[in-house]
Specification:
Elements (H helix, E strand, L loop, with lengths): L1 H20 L1 H33 L2
Helix pairs in contact: 1-2
Keywords: Membrane, Transmembrane, Transmembrane helix
């Protein structure tokens, strides 16, 4: 929970800075962050499936 709160806080600060730099850059960065999150979740799911498969063979 604490880690997430810090990440959100950091993201909001980054978002504010990017807004000043330009909306296009901000949008690209947000897309990149979302891709990163999706990949992380995907990898986590694959790892869980592999572990689950090994335990319940």
């Amino acid at each position: 929970m604490e880690k997430e709160a810090k990440a959100i806080e950091r993201e909001s600060k980054v978002g504010i800075n990017l807004e000043n730099d330009g909306k296009l850059v901000g949008t690209a960065f947000k897309l990149y962050q979302n891709m990163e999150r999706i990949l992380t979740v995907g990898i986590a799911i694959v790892v869980l499936m592999v572990v689950y498969g090994m335990i319940f063979k």
